[in-house]
Amino acid sequence: MISIFRTNLPGETAQVGDMRSLKLDRRYGGLIAWDSLFHLAPSDQRMIFSIFRDHAEPEAPLLFTSGPAFGEVIGTLEGEPLYHASLDPDEYRMLLDRNGFDVVAHVAEDPDCGGRTVWLARQRYA
Questions:
Q1: Which of 8, 13, 31, 54 has its CA 20 to 30 A from that of 19?
Q2: Helix ranges (DSSP H) in the chain
Q3: Residue 73 exposure: Cα atoms within 13 Å on the Cβ side
């Protein structure tokens, strides 16, 4: 993925790290966690929203994907097992609110996004 990023956006900075311990000491005008957050255990997902908060400028959008309902499953990718987990949509809403984000849009199993459950939130103005 980083190789593709560097090919498509030469000269831009790309960093690899564990999102559960992310501390970049700066804020961004937008955050995207597409096809990534749901690979974390529910307990890790619950704590990640404070990390999103700490990296979002006021009014910054946050775009992420989740599962449609609470649960854990093992899928496959190229024949290898792949963990997926999701919180309940009401819990995502509570975590977003608690960390200063308002839900702008939420579409469960969006056919326009390959069946992904998509969230768009915006950091409240401080």
A1: 8
A2: 2-8, 42-55, 89-98
A3: 10
Q: Which residue has the tokens 């955050």?
A: 31
3-state secondary structure of 112: helix
Q: Are 66 and 91 in contact (CB under 8 A)?
A: no
The architecture in CATH of the region 28-123 reads 3-Layer(aba) Sandwich (3.40)
pLDDT at residue 1, as a whole number: 80
Instruction: State both tokens at 78.
Output: 């190229």
Sign of the CA dihedral with 112 first, then 116, 117, and 121 last: negative
DSSP-derived 3-state class of residue 41: coil
**Across residues 57-69, what is the average pLDDT?**
97
Q: Tell me, what amino acid is at 122?
A: R
Q: Which residue has the higher pLDDT, 1 or 59?
A: 59
**Average pLDDT, stretch 57-71?**
97
Closest residue by Cα to residue 17 from 73, 66, 55, 57: 55
